[in-house]
Amino acid sequence: MSQTDQFQTAPQPIFRSLALPPEALAGVRTRRILAVAIDFVVVSVIAFVLWLVLLVATLGLSLVLLPPLFPFVAFFYNGLTVSGWRMATPGMQLMDLEIRRTDGTRVPFLYAAVHAVLFYVSWMFPPILLVSLLADDKRCLHDMLAGVVVTRRVRNFA
Fold first, then answer.
1. Is 111 inside any structural domain?
2. What is the pLDDT of residues 6-53, one digit of tens each?
3. Which of 14, 96, 122, 125 is deepest in the core (most CB within 10 A)?
4. What's the domain range around 126?
């Protein structure tokens, strides 16, 4: 093989699309919206309880630290639950969804946490969420950047 042949391979796509069966992606967008609503409530409750405990434990002195509490809780909530053995947040579990890396493996904590950060950043620019309508595998831009895919929890994907 000559050096010129070496560089004439087809370019690799930046965002690899998975070959998933249609039932793996059926209703994913709607279920994700409902899962986000459920998770938002759960994170809000956890953040409020933590805020209350810190407020009482420090006799009000922790009020200086409390404004970034919600993002801190959301970061670890998503990172720990998505990288766990169920591969989903509690809201996703209720909606029968799971997150995997694009190669089909479990999502490590750092990927899951980065995915959460990118998700919350995408809320600042809502039109970015419309990318999901153009993607064949119904992935949002933050899914593509984090290298993950959200699918239905169907057991018999061939």
1. yes
2. 445 444 444 455 567 767 778 888 999 999 999 999 999 999 999 899
3. 122
4. 24-152
